[in-house]
## 1
Amino acid sequence: MGMKEASGQFTFENVLTREQLHYFDRHGIIQFKAFVDKGAVAGFLREIGEVENYFLNKGISKVNGIPLKFGRDVDGSPLIQRIAFASQYSSVLKEFLLDPRLAALTALLGKYEGRVGENEKDGLVVNHYVNTPVSAFRQLGWHTDSPRDLFLGRRILPMLNVGLHLDDCPYANGGLRVLPGTHKQSFFRLLFRKKYFIDNNPDKREVGFDIEAGDLTVHDGRLWHRVQASPLQDEASRRRVMYIPIITGAYQPKTPDSRTPFYHRLGQLSLNPSGARTSLSALLARNDYK
Ligand SMILES: O=C(O)CCC(=O)C(=O)O
Ligand SMILES: [Fe+2]
């Protein structure tokens, strides 16, 4: 891997190669170019738009206990910046989750048996970042995706977060930044390497990616990562990514009766007027991690 931009760009051909498995094991992240074509990207964006309209029109604010994150678009219209369980509202998205190539990615879990978590955790998540004068969702501080398991009373198991990128995002436009190799850190470092979600500072060892719409990234849930804000504004800053969890362990589906996890409820209470939070409450309150 280079200093800044990750050098490892691969093509997925139905089955993972030894080189790809090795690369992922070593770095905890891998990028596949053009996992889907531009037509598929356009189709997914259309579906997401419809799911979003459905929620907005129905005044739905939570799915299976997970709050939607609302914002405003460039033109001032309402926007949902984080949708959970999106595939439960779209047959096109649901079908994508059945793509055998996604199932093939479970090989990245090594000895663990993995499955696509359509109805578990937060299901298929859609993140939508855009810089506008009023946008509250333009970046994401350093975190791993693992501690949530602890708050749910479970042991941390390996998991994969599979990101299908729906906008072009060259390295210079911000986007995903990771600390390669940190998926193999100690439990202590997993919890305390950085201040969860508070710390937005670049790290000299971080790497980012040249992403084109249709690319796929897969990261180990234990890897430290963040989202760098785009230096651009408005339309040019738009970044949409769908995340599919590939998980192990006991099947724990969520339903409309599922309680909102307590860190989400804390999130609704603990935002003080300046928007600043203490590090522990930020970790607990984080409105949108998997
Ligand atoms: O938007 C991304 O690429 C990363 C999002 C993320 O890390 C998260 O939602 O936990
Ligand atoms: Fe994350």
Note: The chain has one domain: 9-285.
## 2
Amino acid sequence: MPRLLRYFLLFNLLLLICPLALIGCASVTERATQSTLASASPAPSGITECEQEAPDTITRPTGKPYTGDLSTFEDPERDQKLQVNRVMDILKIKEGSSVADIGAGSGWFTVRAARRVGTGAAVYAVDINRDYLDYIDKRAKREGLANIRVIQGKDNDPLLPEKSVDAVLLMKTYHEVAQPIQLLKRTRNAMRAGALLGIIDRNGNGDHGIDKDVVIKEVTRAGFVLLDQHDFVKPDRADYFLVFRVGP
Ligand SMILES: C[S@@+](CC[C@H](N)C(=O)[O-])C[C@H]1O[C@@H](n2cnc3c(N)ncnc32)[C@H](O)[C@@H]1O
């Protein structure tokens, strides 16, 4: 066969093969993507596939964990301003319930929950700050509340025992949590059937608060379903109180 004809045929063959190869690659990639998505847990409603594929790590700004004086949390009018009994009612905290107070600070909420649930149930005071937990330990002894257990959690893990609680509250804490989605996924494992999660915070850009919509989106990504939202926890209605349950 003349050399020129050979080159001509070879060139045509290449023109035919290259697009076929490209189509093949695309469909392999598509299948791989589909199988990755199929093996992942189903996307909660309102979450796009891209968001679901992203790791549970958040990169938005978060507040620096509070390290100041604990008396800040002990305003004598706080019970009434925050309507703490109404908060506990909404979270179905009653005698015999076990509760986790994540980001417990001075233990202001911990001791109130401990009095309500009584001696037959535990209240876990979780914080990353060892000094605050030592303070809560002493406070529990002083106030005769033997049902309080302190736990030094991690940025992304409250280290709660599995299936140990009926209610969890993060009060003025969510905006400080460095990795909230990871922390909440682990919190989910600690929640018994029907347990509720409450989050009290105020709108902001992560420094002293966090926008409610950001919280709802992240908590949903962690596998929870929003049940209700309230604005009675501060007289000027600047704070929100969100209530979630574990998703299906
Ligand atoms: C602003 S204080 C609120 C204290 C308390 N909840 C209150 O309202 O009285 C926030 C607390 O959350 C704690 N904190 C921050 N990140 C945390 C995390 N990932 N896990 C547990 N506690 C955390 C801080 O150490 C601090 O004690």
Note: The beta strands are 99-102, 123-127, 148-152, 165-171, 191-202, 224-230, 239-246.
